[in-house]
Structures are given as structure tokens and as C-alpha cells.
UniProtKB/TrEMBL annotation, chain A:
GO terms for cellular component: plasma membrane. This is ABC transporter permease. The lineage of its organism: Bacteria, Pseudomonadati, Pseudomonadota, Alphaproteobacteria, Rhodospirillales. InterPro entries: BPD_transp_1_N, MetI-like, MetI-like_sf. One of its GO terms (biological process) is transmembrane transport. The chain crosses the membrane at residues 9-30, 99-122, 134-159, 179-199, 233-260, 280-303. It is found in: Cell membrane. PANTHER family: DIPEPTIDE TRANSPORT SYSTEM PERMEASE PROTEIN DPPB-RELATED. Residues 95-303 form the ABC transmembrane type-1 domain. Its main location: membrane. Belongs to the binding-protein-dependent transport system permease family.
UniProtKB/TrEMBL annotation, chain B:
It is a multi-pass membrane protein. Keywords: Cell membrane, Membrane, Transmembrane, Transmembrane helix, Transport. GO terms for cellular component: plasma membrane. Residues 79-268 form the ABC transmembrane type-1 domain. This is ABC transporter permease. GO terms for biological process: transmembrane transport.
Length: 316, 285
């Protein structure tokens, strides 16, 4: 297990390193000077020079890469070109909102998804099973931001049930909960369909396995078989997907956050992209990638603990 | 694939109501995209300030936007934008993925290890974050959009092809070819290629709705297709900004996106069920 853990963590570090390096390479491979692009055609040379200095572009390339890595390792992601605030501080200010949104979205999707998946297994082969199948595919395919806009129009603009914009007042938990409901609904609904499908498929597979047949032969009640033995194994692919899910849900939150004007990583990075604020974009992408890698690696290790077969596959 | 096999796939697709529904929607959108100049009732770019924010009527079936442009015409031309970007990007990404995947699966071990590390690094980047990083560097536009989609899609396709190539590489008929002295290039092109494209086609068709979603999303943020070129994303954004003035606009503007992604997904699912039911589904974005 320790061996596996070291290999897996090592791989994550190598990947993060490669990602950083290729992002840096990209900036230099693209023609045009980032400072002039950010300032537009009418900027004076002196202003450009100032901005170049602030972005660290006046240094030799290798020095830039080295200092970027060294600083990133200590949590220093550079400074916002325009406001001069540390990028890391801005990320820390916005990230909790995004994390809360992602967690609520994935949370309700998980509960409903597992329920629907189990229901489909109970009703397997019937019309209801088929209907749930079509519904799941439909939910997966509709873009979250279209649902977000429809939800905003219906529940905030027409019915006035919930706030249309923002993340609620700081310290006022009720307003924060109210503000998270619509975005989390829009963001999570695709995952309901996906998880329902996943749980159904892996449950059906597990129900055919030998140890379930053995449990049946021993005369254990069906409910106990499903919840004690089948779900325990059927949940494993769900955990793996949930980790990937948290990563991808936080990045697709970009669109939903924009629709609801919710201060978060999405609004931070889109604003920075529109203003070509390199340090903020690079820092945010790096932070999100690192976060994603940590979650995915942790999930892989957890799965290896739950299911020894995976460790063996990795070794072989 | 023989035409007999194609007919079999078509028949089992039509027998599945979901697949048939998907096929009909996809064909409708394809016709819309191809014949846009002939079926659109107005010029999608023609501004008419006196007619702004008109509700749906006989003259303007879907109403008009904040500049008095005909919404239906814009949606029809938006289909052209969405589908041409999606197909170009999927085509390029599929081609490059096919090549890299076969090289990784059939080439020397060190090259394979390097390529797999590249694929792993690329797919650990959250897609939208990566897209935004590329747009910051290259600048927004249709070309950037295609570049982004190609870059994020290649690893997935290459991994699929690599796995297929690896499992086929040790098959008896390939060994026989090698014993008879066939070159690697010949084996790759004549024997491996025809056997690995099938699953790729299914995965490509299932990725079209993801690309449509990404195009619309980025155009919505004004980081994709540049106005005034009609895109379902910037039409939706126009509707969003006039949410209170003309709610019908945003309702109608969301529909083509919903229907197109549904149609392509249902068709992809149907195709997969008809050809290769064991293929894995993607993670929602």
C-alpha cells in the first residue's frame, strides 16, 4: 500500500510540474508581447515597460520559470497586474464560495442519483427503468448554464422565491443558503443523471458476482445483501468519479457563477481573462489544477484501500 | 465496414425510440446549418432599432432582439456556427488523437511512456480552466475555440486508440504480418487503422454536444465566437441581459442548445448501443 501511495503521489507531482511547464511554454510560444496585448494598441512604451516589469517579463526566460516554480511552491502566485493584490489572497477569498457551491451541488446530486440508481435496479427491465434511463441521459446532456438561466428566470425573476445574484451576506447563513440553492440546482442536475446511471450499472454488475450468490445461498435477506454487500462494492466507481466530478464541477461552475453573479473562482478568472490579467489567470489555473490533483489522488488511495485488486493492477 | 453492416446499424438505431429521436433532431439541425441562407427569413445581422424587443409574431416567429434583429434567423445561422466549429474541431482532434494513439501503442516503450505522461497531464487540467488559460494567451475568437477543443480532446481519443492498438498489437494476424516481413507503417495503416476507428467514431459523435456546450458557454462569456457573428451562446447572452425587458427572448434562445445537445447525445447513445455497448460514457462537464 505504501509503495502504491508513493508512486501515485509521485505521479501527481510530475503531472503538476508538466502542466506548469507547458503553461509557461505556451505564453512564450505565442507571438506578441503579453504586456502590449493587455494594454491595447494605444499604450505608451513607458507604460508597457512598467507592466512588463510587474509581470516579471523583463527577466530572462529561464529565470522567470525558476522564480515562478520557487514562488508557487511557497504559495506565492504573484501579484494582480492591475490591483497589485497578491493572487493567492484573491483565490483564498473567492475559493470558499466555489467550494461550497460545488459541494452542495454534488451532495444533492449524489443523494438523488444513488436513490434513482437503486430504484432502477429494483425496477430493472421494466418501463420505469427505461424511463429513468432516458431521463438520466437527458439530464446529462443539457448544458448547466442554460438550466441556470431558466431557473433564474422562473424562480428569481418571476416567482421572487430566491435571490437572483450574489452569494448572500457574509455572516448571514440563511441568506447564503438561499443564494446557493439555484446555482447548486443548475450545477448538480447533470450529475443526478450521471450518478444514477453509474450506480445502476455497477449495482447490476455486482449483483451477478459470486459472493452475492454465496450470500443468497446462505439465506441472507435481500435488503441486507443490497446494502451491506452490494452497495459497498458498487459505490467504489462512484467514489472515483466523485473525485473527478468535484474537479470538473468546480471548473464548470465558471458559467453558473457568471449567470448568478456569484463571487467565486469562475467570476475571478473570467474577469481576469477579459482583462488579460496573466498572473491571476495562471495562478488560478495552477491552483485549481493542484486542487484537482490532490482530490483525485486522495480518492485513488482511498479506493485502493477499499479494493485491493486495484493496487495489484497498478503494480502489474 | 460494409454497407450491409451500416444498414443493420441504421435499423437498430431506428428501432430504439431514443436513437430515432436523436437522429431526427440531428438531421434537422444539419439541414438548418447547411441551408441557413435559404431558410432564414431575414438577414441575421440586419439591425432595425424601431423593431427591437418584439414578442413572437407572424412576421418574426421568435421575436426580435435588443437591436431589432430577427431571432429565428440568428438561431438558424447559430446552428451553422455551432456545427461547423464542433465538426472541424472533432475532426482535427480525432485525426491527431488517432495518430498519437497509434504511435504510443505501437512505438517504442520510452515514447509510449512520454506520450502517456503528456496525455495524463493534459487530462488533469480542468477543461474550462485550460480553455480560459489558452484564450488569455492567444486571444478570443473562433480559431482559438477550435484550438482549445482540439487540445483538450486529443488525450482522450489518443488513450482510446492506444488501448485498442495495444490489445490488437499482439493479435495473431498482426504477428503473422510481422513474421512475413511487413513494415511497421504497413501494419499500422493497413491492419491496425481499420480496426481501431470504430470506437473512435462513436466517442467523437458523443463529444459533439460537449463541444457545442463549450462553444456556447465561451461565446456567452464573450470569449468565444465574436459578435456580431450569431452563436447560440451570444444570443443567449443577449437574452440574459434583456431578461426583464423581454423574457421570451432568453426562453427561446436556450431552446436550440437544449435540443441540439439532447439530439446529439441521444444519437451517440443509440449508435453506441447499436455498435459497441461496452464503451464507457463520459463525465458530464
Amino acid at each position: 500500500m505504501l509503495n502504491y501511495a508513493i508512486k501515485r503521489i509521485g505521479l501527481a507531482i510530475v503531472i503538476l510540474f508538466t502542466v506548469m511547464l507547458s503553461m509557461y511554454a505556451m505564453v512564450f510560444l505565442v507571438p506578441g508581447d503579453p504586456a502590449s496585448l493587455a494594454l491595447g494598441p494605444r499604450a505608451t512604451p513607458a507604460l508597457k515597460e512598467l507592466l512588463r516589469e510587474r509581470m516579471g517579463l523583463d527577466q530572462p526566460v529561464l529565470i522567470q520559470v525558476w522564480s515562478f516554480f520557487r514562488n508557487a511552491a511557497t504559495g506565492d502566485l504573484g501579484y494582480d497586474v492591475w490591483s497589485k493584490r497578491p493572487v493567492f489572497d484573491q483565490i483564498m477569498e473567492f475559493f470558499p464560495n466555489t467550494l461550497a457551491l460545488g459541494a452542495v451541488a454534488l451532495g444533492w446530486a449524489l443523494v438523488l442519483g444513488i436513490l434513482l440508481g437503486c430504484a432502477a435496479v429494483v425496477w430493472r427491465g421494466t418501463f420505469m427503468d427505461r424511463l429513468l434511463g432516458v431521463l438520466s441521459v437527458g439530464l446529462i446532456s443539457i448544458p448547466a448554464f442554460v438550466i441556470a438561466i431558466y431557473a433564474l428566470l422562473i424562480f428569481a425573476v418571476w416567482l421572487h422565491w430566491l435571490p437572483a445574484i450574489g452569494a448572500g451576506q457574509p455572516g448571514d447563513i440563511v441568506s447564503q443558503i438561499k443564494a446557493v440553492i439555484l446555482p447548486a440546482f443548475a450545477l448538480g442536475i447533470g450529475w443526478v443523471g450521471y450518478l444514477a446511471r453509474l450506480v445502476r450499472a455497477s449495482m447490476l454488475e455486482v449483483m451477478n458476482e459470486n459472493h452475492i450468490r454465496t450470500a443468497r445461498a446462505f439465506g441472507l435477506p435481500e435488503r441486507r445483501i443490497v446494502f451491506r454487500y452490494a452497495l459497498r462494492i458498487a459505490i467504489i466507481p462512484t467514489i472515483a468519479i466523485l473525485a473527478v466530478g468535484l474537479g470538473s464541477i468546480l471548473s464548470s461552475a465558471v458559467f453558473v457563477e457568471t449567470v448568478f453573479g456569484r463571487p467565486g473562482i469562475g467570476t475571478l478568472i473570467t474577469g481576469a481573462v477579459q482583462k488579460r490579467n496573466y498572473p491571476v489567470v495562471m495562478g488560478t489555473v495552477l491552483f485549481m489544477t493542484a486542487f484537482y490533483l490532490v482530490v483525485v489522488t486522495a480518492a485513488d488511495l482511498l479506493i485502493a484501500r477499499l479494493d485491493p485488486r486495484i493496487r495489484d493492477v497498478f503494480r502489474g | 465496414m460494409s454497407s450491409g453492416a451500416n444498414r443493420g446499424i441504421f435499423r437498430s438505431l431506428m428501432r430504439d425510440p431514443m436513437g430515432a429521436f436523436g437522429l431526427i433532431l440531428v438531421v434537422a439541425f444539419l439541414i438548418m446549418a447547411l441551408a441557413a441562407p435559404w431558410i432564414a427569413p431575414y438577414d441575421p445581422l440586419k439591425i432595425s432599432i424601431t423593431e427591437r424587443f418584439q414578442p413572437p409574431s407572424l412576421a418574426h416567429w421568435a421575436g426580435t432582439d435588443q437591436l431589432g434583429r430577427d431571432l429565428l434567423s440568428r438561431i438558424i445561422f447559430g446552428a451553422r456556427t455551432a456545427l461547423s466549429i464542433a465538426m472541424t474541431a472533432a475532426g482535427i482532434a480525432g485525426g491527431v488523437g488517432l495518430l498519437l494513439g497509434m504511435i504510443a501503442g505501437y512505438g517504442p516503450r520510452w515514447l509510449d511512456a512520454f506520450l502517456v505522461l503528456m496525455f495524463d497531464s493534459m487530462s488533469s487540467l480542468p477543461m474550462i480552466m485550460f480553455a480560459l488559460a489558452v484564450i488569455t494567451v492567444v486571444g478570443p475568437g473562433t480559431g482559438t475555440l477550435i484550438l482549445v477543443v482540439v487540445l483538450v480532446s486529443i488525450p482522450g481519443y489518443a488513450r482510446l486508440i492506444r488501448a485498442q492498438t495495444l490489445s490488437l498489437g499482439s493479435a495473431d494476424f498482426i504477428l503473422a504480418e510481422r513474421v512475413m516481413g511487413a513494415s511497421s507503417a504497413r501494419i499500422l495503416a493497413r491492419h491496425l487503422l481499420p480496426n481501431v476507428v470504430g470506437p473512435l467514431v462513436i466517442v467523437l459523435s458523443m463529444d459533439i454536444p460537449v463541444i457545442i456546450m463549450l462553444e456556447a458557454g465561451l461565446s456567452y462569456l464573450n470569449l468565444g465566437v465574436r459578435p456580431p457573428i450569431p452563436s447560440w451562446g451570444n444570443i443567449l447572452y443577449d437574452g440574459y441581459t434583456s431578461l426583464r425587458a423581454a423574457p421570451s427572448m432568453v426562453l427561446i434562445a436556450g431552446l436550440p442548445l437544449v435540443l441540439a445537445t439532447l439530439g446529439f447525445t441521444f444519437l451517440g447513445e443509440g449508435l453506441r448501443d447499436a455498435i459497441d455497448p461496452k464503451l464507457k460514457v463520459r463525465v458530464p462537464r
